[in-house]
Amino acid sequence: MGKIFDSAVAALDGLLFDGMTIVAGGFGLCGIPEKLIAAIHDSGVKDLTLVSNNAGVDGFGLGVLLESRQVKKVLASYVGENKEFERQYLAGELDLEFAPQGTLAERIRAGGAGIAGFYTRTGVGTKIAEGKEHKDFDGETYILERGIVADLAIVHAWQSDPYGNLVYRKTARNFNPNAATAGRVTVAEVEHLVDAGSLDPDGIHTPSVYVQRVVLGHDFEKRIEQRTVRQREAV
Amino acid sequence: MGKIFDSAVAALDGLLFDGMTIVAGGFGLCGIPEKLIAAIHDSGVKDLTLVSNNAGVDGFGLGVLLESRQVKKVLASYVGENKEFERQYLAGELDLEFAPQGTLAERIRAGGAGIAGFYTRTGVGTKIAEGKEHKDFDGETYILERGIVADLAIVHAWQSDPYGNLVYRKTARNFNPNAATAGRVTVAEVEHLVDAGSLDPDGIHTPSVYVQRVVLGHDFEKRIEQRTVRQREAV
Amino acid sequence: MSTPVKGWTRDEMAARAAAELKDGFYVNLGIGMPTLVANHIAPGVDITLQSENGMLGMGPFPFAGDEDPDLINAGKQTITELRRTSYFSSADSFAMIRGGHMDLSILGAMEVAANGDLANWMVPGKMIKGMGGAMDLVAGCKRIVVLMEHNDKTGGHKFRDACTLPLTGSNVVDVLITDLAVFDRADRKGAPFRLIAMADGVTIDDLRARTGAAFVE
Amino acid sequence: MSTPVKGWTRDEMAARAAAELKDGFYVNLGIGMPTLVANHIAPGVDITLQSENGMLGMGPFPFAGDEDPDLINAGKQTITELRRTSYFSSADSFAMIRGGHMDLSILGAMEVAANGDLANWMVPGKMIKGMGGAMDLVAGCKRIVVLMEHNDKTGGHKFRDACTLPLTGSNVVDVLITDLAVFDRADRKGAPFRLIAMADGVTIDDLRARTGAAFVE
């Protein structure tokens, strides 16, 4: 077995190549595989196609790969938080494809599940539907969307056992379990390595079959984008 | 709110009508909604279309609805354990449609997820593919399978909180979470009602939005089909 | 044209929208003005809020010091959980939305058309940020309520016979709440928008002058 | 034709199949003879067994008294869990299978054809019990190993140029293990089955006489 690796660099060894497609978990900066992204940055691999709900921010998350110009194309649902992204896109240096968030999530799940395509009502009558096959079912119009399989999936989890069974925490789950299924190889960075048998078998989010390599991260930054609080009422 | 009902009969009140389609959780006799099935039996509702992986056994599970001749059609992947089923089918009294088990599970999930249809390789080149649309993706042939939405979903869970958040136990999970999403109305029988806040929010299998009614069952039979054991080795 | 009227405040609009929420509803609130609706839910009306990044049962903002980077809403704001909360993946979250399990979504808009078309995600020529989950929400939720200013900053029509901006969804808006009035449709099968309320001081002539869409009274 | 040879026992066939299992593999074992394979896994080879009703990391049968009605395998037999076990829904289970994540499945068969076609679910005229998960497994697993008797009870060919029974899958069998011999194919792109082993006492002439399919030596 031996799924546990000492560092993000070691966990990615031999998996990176120019022109590859990488699907990444995370929503905004929540639950992003920040250590693996940093290691991909340091590797210098280029011409990447990134499949991710968002593209990080300037200087953090997938944004670091944009700054270093390692990215050829992004498939995302929302990229509003990134000035460098905007600059490269407007300069024609970056290819961008939008998918509605639920369509993106389902396309990733479908890729992992051996579903080549599926019909959804989302986007019917909009620019997203242009050029896509339309089909009526029971009097309603649907469009065909394709499953996505990536060369590599990178995810961030809360816990892993030695087998690579993963548990995510709160809304840091988001795209991670779906991304984990859609990589030809899947690498997980985790906040805690736990002993065999210590995870509840009814509570595992990503079964071990999906995870080929695991790395325990340290000193995660876990940046908050919108720190919103309420006032404690006076007693 | 008020999702908790006193009895299976009360939980089904107003939901049953002749000719309706019911999707049921369970695999073999494991995790079947045995109390709800009994109440459906007692109601006398007829001409049912049942969507379920199996059709129970003589005298238990969905088998009781076959014996009372309340069933018009069954959509299942395997019905091998039921003599009365066989008799009615061979006599032409029962309509039967087979779906491969994974296709059945995905059709139920798709129905619940607003996916009208999806392309799978399962069954290509077999009788199951006859009459279905074929389509090539990346040089491989797939067939189109349809999502299923039922008038009613009946499921069996281990725990529910007052909101209808459900947790299943071990392999009694099986088709239950998928069925729960595919009913226009979903009724769950549960072995334990637990207090609000006592389920781990990261460990809920069926979020409350899918569950309209819950009944706490008592004295479940939970019959075992194949009692297999190993010998304790001599010390 | 007519004397400018003040119309409803954003909070008054949110209160109008809150009247659409019925006991037991599962609701998704879009980013911006729709989030104000949560402050106006009537006593005794129990609502469960979904956040499409993977949470059902969204609680209020945390107290300072309790922020958790693993607990955010779809607007990336720190939030809290409740006793009813469950978490799930993005695919499961949108299965819930696309599958028609959410009773209602309240969204902002740039334009709404007389036939229920909605535009709220891109302005040609400006940097496109993406549609996020808006197309999924309007295609999947049982009922769509839109909150928007009745006119743009130059007085231009936002409620129009046809949208000029790229659509988020076609024939999806059920209720339109602006600072001047409330409109709804009986169905999505061709029923016209019907005026059901106007802000104090707004006359029907004012309203017609400031509206580019046909509607019935 | 030739003197009947005894060939391999069911356990010997299972041991042959076990040689297909490599360290770290995720494997689904069909009902019947394939379940015997678990008894022959080599020391040091760590295999995780999937049960398609929703479990990864299937353990052995329980001791008497420890049977749990909530813990069964796809053959509806009571089983146990291991320290690596996870449970999931049927849709998730077959996503795992259909998506190509299972390294190997070992299945029984009624007929196998020279082109890799497999028939193992129905005999026309007999009551059809259903295909269960077999069609999904053969369509989805990376590698399919079939265990079957080389001939039927009347001596008829089960390894044939074409199947006569309705198919479970077309062009899906990678390895065929019978009581007489082992055959495999280099790929599913037209490579023929190649004989790689024969049971003691079986001659190539025996084998050809008892086989209805073309194969290479």
What does this structure look like?
The complex is a heterotetramer, with two copies of chain A (about 240 residues) and two copies of chain C (about 220 residues). Chain A is α/β, with parallel strands linked by helices and about 240 residues long. Chain A has a single domain, classed as Glutaconate Coenzyme A-transferase (3-Layer(aba) Sandwich), CATH 3.40.1080.10. Helix content of chain A is about 20%, strand content about 25%. Chain A contains six helices and twelve strands. The longest helix of chain A has 12 residues. The mean pLDDT of chain A is about 95. Helices cover about 15% and strands about 20% of the residues of chain C. Chain C has a nine-stranded mixed β-sheet with strand order 4-3-2-1-5-8-10-11-12, sandwiched between helices. Chain C has a three-stranded mixed β-sheet with strand order 7-6-9, with no helix packed on it. By secondary structure, chain C is an alpha/beta fold. The longest helix of chain C has 9 residues. Chain C has four helices and twelve strands, in the order αββββαβββαβββββα. In chain C, α2 runs parallel beside α3. Chain C has a domain of about 140 residues: Glutaconate Coenzyme A-transferase (3-Layer(aba) Sandwich). In chain C, β2 and β3 form a beta hairpin. Chains A and C meet through α4, α5 and α6 of A and α2 and α3 of C.
